[in-house]
Specification:
Elements: H1 8-26, H2 40-43, E1 48-54, E2 57-64, H3 71-84, E3 100-107, E4 111-112, H4 118-124, E5 131-136, E6 139-143, H5 154-164, E7 178-182, E8 184-188
Antiparallel strand pairs: 1-2, 1-3, 3-8, 4-7, 5-6, 5-7
């Protein structure tokens, strides 16, 4: 479960792409800045998230877990979606643009965790390292590894993740969840 390491040029290209995709929606006549000759790493299919922070507070976060399209396409689409389509926030406005910091997370392929019970699950999840996906029936949610900074203890982390999925807070103790983990390479402006 490893994430490819991007070069500084690749990281800068992705951050410029994300900011310009948002700016183009807000400011008429502004073009999206895509790299002229994208590296192989940027053309590789992988999951990614774009997170916006304003004054260090979450202002939007949208992403894709599946490796369905290139990293370039994913970052461009997720930047727009995090700015304008995150249902938790009103659409970003032009006067907020300079106050927003952009963070990009590039995901490894998630792997299913085999576990016997709640205690076994607690032993297998690595705080600060793993992003976690839980699902039961049509309920599903994920937290990026960065969420460990706000929820450093595994039990509260899982309880909040259960709530995010629309499940009861202690659902993780039942042993009937599908749990997947992944790692990320993340960087910001």
């Amino acid at each position: 479960m490893t994430v490819q390491t991007l070069s500084d040029d690749d990281r800068n290209s992705l951050l410029k792409l994300a900011r310009s995709a948002i700016t183009a929606e807000l400011v008429g006549g502004t073009e999206v800045i895509r790299p002229a000759k994208p590296s192989a790493a940027l053309q590789k299919k992988c999951g990614c998230f774009v997170t916006l922070h304003k004054n260090k507070a979450l202002r939007g976060c949208i992403g894709t877990i599946e490796a369905a399209r290139s990293l370039l396409a994913g970052v461009e689409d997720n930047a727009r979606n995090s700015a304008f389509k995150d249902p938790r926030f009103p659409p970003l406005e032009a006067d907020e643009l300079l106050a927003v910091d952009i963070e990009i997370s590039v995901l490894s392929v998630p792997i299913a965790l085999e576990y016997n019970d709640a205690d076994d699950l607690l032993k297998k999840i690595q705080p600060g390292v793993h992003g976690v996906i839980i699902s039961r029936a049509w309920h599903s949610a994920t937290f990026l590894p960065q969420v460990w900074e706000q929820l450093p203890d595994t039990k509260p982390f899982l309880e909040h993740l259960c709530l995010k999925a629309g499940l009861e807070t202690n659902c993780w103790t039942a042993g009937d969840l599908t749990v997947k983990v992944y790692t990320v390479e993340y960087f910001s402006e």
